[in-house]
Amino acid sequence: MKINSNMGKVEIRDQKQRYGDSHRGIFALERIEKGEKIWYCECGKKDACFTKDQLLNIIKKNPKLYNFIWSFSYMIDDDLFGLSYNYKDENTIDECVLFNHSCDPTCGFGENGCGDNVIAIRTIEPGEELTYHYGILETESCLIQGLICKCNSQNCVGKLTFDYYRDPVFVNKYFEYMSPYLKKKTLEMNHKWYSIKCYVKRYIPNDSSDDSSCDLEDWRKGLCSLKSISQDELVASFASEEHVQEHMHYLRHNSFDPNCYIIGKNVYACFDILPEVELTVDFGNDSNPQPSAPIRNSSSNDATN
Ligand SMILES: [Zn+2]
Ligand SMILES: [Zn+2]
C-alpha cells in the first residue's frame, strides 16, 4: 500500500510532550528540496466514507473512538469524511495520517493529493517537522473546528477556524497544494458564497430507513445552519439570479414556513435560526419551483458580495 513514503529521509517521532497523549509527528532526517515528493500511498482509496452525523453516531455508540475519529478523519467532500476502514480497532492504515498542522507549513499536497500525496513546499532542513496547513484539507464544518494550534510559528493563529479557503492571501499561497475538495470549494466562491455559519449537509434519502445501507452519493444535499443565524442575516449569495436557480437544489423549497427569503441573488434568514436547522426558501410554485420575487423586503442588509 505504501508505494513510496520516502522513509529514508523522514522518521516518525513521539510528540506526546507537545501535542498530548499518543501524538506523533514526521521529521526530516536529511535536507528535502522544494517540490520533492515526501509521501505517496493509496490509503485514501481504501478509506471508508461517512457523513458528520454518522461519525458523531459512531462516537456516541463507542465513546472511546472519539480521539481516533477526531484525529484521523478528514474531509473529502461536503459533509463527507474519510476514515481508515480499521477505525473500530483504532488502526490507521499507515503513517500518512501523522502529518501535523502548522500555520507555517513545510509541506502541501501534490497533484490530486490528499494526506496520501505530500510534497515539500519549500526547502526543509534536517530536524524540521513535516507539516501541512490543515486549511488545505478542512472547512468550517470539520470535526476539528476550533482546534488550538501548537505550531509555535511566528504567524500562528492559535485557534483554527478552517475558513482559510475564503482568504485570497491564503489561496494565493496554497491553492496548488490544496486537496481536490478544497480546490473545488475555493473555485466555488467565485459564483456561490455561503456564510461561515452554514454548510452543505447530506440528508438521508426519504425512502431509506437505514442510513448505512445506501450510497452516500445518493443522499440529498441541503444548506444547513452550522451556528446560530440572526434574523435578516445574509446566509448565501450568488453571482447572479441565474446562479440562484442553478444552486437552488441546496435550498429546500418550503411554501408553508420557510426560514429564509431571497432578494435578487441573496438569501437571508427570516428569523433567528438555531444550529443544525435546514435552510428553506419559498420558491413560489410547488409544481415547478422557480426563484420567486422577494417574499419579504429588507432594508437592513446589503449584499456584501
Ligand atoms: Zn497512507
Ligand atoms: Zn499555528
UniProtKB/TrEMBL annotation:
Gene3D superfamilies: SET domain
SUPFAM superfamilies registered for this protein in UniProt: SET domain
Pfam families, per database record: SET
Name of the protein: SET domain-containing protein
Coiled-coil residue spans: none
Region: Disordered, residue numbers: 285-305
Species in which this protein is naturally found: Brachionus calyciflorus
Chain ranges of the SET domain: 8-135
